[in-house]
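Fill in residues.
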């Protein structure tokens, strides 16, 4: 049986996982295309695969919403995902403390960071 800590590190260690979790946590995941526009280098397939993986891991869940007579999909963090986002916030705090990132890093999603690429 694989170690859960290692499994989790494999999920959040992927290039796009933390920015996606952050966009959802900050309530800014306003649809697939909007996120595609914020993450310049991500392909639709990669975003879709990451969303599926995060959903399968129980970190996010998909919600359908009715808007203007058409169905839209929204993603939200699960309880597990909110706790993980808290850990990500602590990692950001740690990086601020040790001078690795700007102080406002904790208050903004990764996609708004000048160092995001």
């Amino acid at each position: 049986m694989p170690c859960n800590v290692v499994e989790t590190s494999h999920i959040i260690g992927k290039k796009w996982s933390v920015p996606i979790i952050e966009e959802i946590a900050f309530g800014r995941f306003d649809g697939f295309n909007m996120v595609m526009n914020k993450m310049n280098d991500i392909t639709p397939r990669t975003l879709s695969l990451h969303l599926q993986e995060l959903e399968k891991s129980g970190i996010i869940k998909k919600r359908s919403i009715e808007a203007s007579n058409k169905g839209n999909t929204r993603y939200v963090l699960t309880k597990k995902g909110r706790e993980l986002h808290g850990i990500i916030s602590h990692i950001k705090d740690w990086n601020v403390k040790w001078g690795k990132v700007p102080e406002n890093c904790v208050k903004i999603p990764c996609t708004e960071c000048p160092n995001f690429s």
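The chain has a mean pLDDT of 83.
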